[in-house]
Amino acid sequence: MVIRAHKKWTRGDCVSGPFGYRDARPPSFARAHEPPSPLLKGAKRRLAWMDFYESHGRNAALTCRHFAIVRSTLYRWLARYDPLDLSSLEERSRAPRKRREPMTPMPVVDAILALRTERPAWSKYKISVVLARDSGTVVSASTVGRVLKRYGRIDKKRSLKRVRAARGRASRHRRPKGFVASGPGALVQIDTKHLNLPWSEKRFHFEAIDLATRMKVSGIAKTGSSRSAEAFLTHALASFPFPVKAVQTDNGSEYAHLFAQACESVGIEHYLSYPRCPKQNAWVERVIQTTQDEYYRYHEYPIDIADHVVLCALLDRDYNEVRPHQSLGYLTPLEYYRRQADVHGSP
User: What angle do CA 170, 269, 204 make, to 5 degrees?
Assistant: First the structure.
């Protein structure tokens, strides 16, 4: 009488007795017939070494010369290579087997996480200061940062954005403290106004104003790129009746790359205001508001951009030669500049 087993045997079980062919296959044979996982680029390159080595009579010197590798590298991968398991050609983890365990006490960790939950926008520096001040827990900002990272309490996207912004701020040229525009052209502020036109078109209105004489130059462009800002800078330098020594802009992308290169090529200092500080560009912000209140509010926008360029020239002439300015003793900017030139000489 034959007694049949009721257990469902799986591959690799050690049993006695006749079973099917699939149960009798060795594990290596089964792996060879399973669909292989895709190899990474490095593993494919090493597989080419193995194929060349086998097809050229196991000549290690020839293989090394052909692929420009050293023999120790080839021998290391030959010892690791398993023809039935191509994943043996993949890189192994290089992480240390024994890692340092965090030594921050759990009460300190709980205090850091609790304060982070209460104040999610605070940086690690603020958290470190507040813990030392309020609870007497002295912990460094670096330790706070590691704890927040370990428990997933840092927004990687926002953190990366702040790091990139900080790197950019470190190399930006700021206006010196106590700087005074002592004469015409000593400092010209430039800014951009985005115009959303009624027919679903967007244009960019550039303004440049000299701080000493209040003379301004404006321009219009279809795009707010650095190329448009460079073209406006060239137009402004040619329009002012005096040489410009320095310009100041905000941190917009249009005032980088080609605009910065143009300033450097003509020998003009390019100062950048601090982020979110429009008061540092108060003069050009004011002239943009004046253009909006006194001209665009009472006139229709030209449909053709060429007509818009002509309108900007007319607005500049009216602002510089017709409109009296209270800050200049109710003189026009052109009158004030001519008086200064008569007294101090033309720059």
Answer: 85
Mean pLDDT of 331-341: 93
pLDDT in tens, 273-301: 988 888 999 999 999 999 999 888 888 89
Q: Residue 173's closest CA among 249, 266, 257?
A: 249
Task: Judge contact between 185 and 210, C-beta under 8 A.
Answer: yes
Instruction: Name the least confident of 144-158, 206-220, 320-334.
Output: 144-158
The pTM (predicted TM-score) of the whole model is 0.55
Q: At what angle do helices 71-80 and 41-55 cross, to 10 degrees?
A: 100
Give yes or no for a contact between 185 and 204, defined as CB atoms under 8 angstroms apart: no
Q: How do 202-210 and 269-272 pair as beta strands?
A: unpaired
CB 125 within 8 A of CB 141: yes
CATH number of 188-344: 3.30.420.10
CB neighbours of residue 291 within 10 Å:
20
| Backbone phi and psi for residue 191, each to the nearest 5 degrees, phi listed first | -150, 170
pLDDT of amino acid 324: 93
Q: Is 289 helix (H, G, I), strand (E, B) or coil?
A: helix
Listed in sequence order, the residues at least 6 apart from 152 whose beta carbon sits closer than 8 Å to its beta carbon are: none
Position 162 scores a pLDDT of 67
Please tell me the distance from the alpha carbon of residue 28 to that of residue 95, in angstroms, as a whole number. 28
